[in-house]
Amino acid sequence: MNALPQDLRTTPAAGVTLADLHDPDEIARIERFVAEQRGSVFHRPAWLAAIERGTGQQALGLIATCAGRLTGWLPLSDVHSPLFGRALVSSGFAVGGGPLAVAEDESQALCRVAEELALRRGANTIELRGGQAPQDWTATCTAHCNFARDLAADDEAELLAIPRKARAEVRKGLRNELAIAIGSDAEDRTAHYAVYSESVRNLGTPVFPRALFDAVLDTFGADADILTVRHRGEPVASVLSLYHQGAVMPFWGGGRYVARDLRANEVMYYELMRHARQRGCTRFDFGRSKTGSGPYFFKKNWGFTPEPLTYSSWNTPGVAPRNIDPTDEGYSRGIALWKRLPLPLANFIGPFIARGLG
Question: What is the pTM of this model?
Answer without folding.
Answer: 0.91
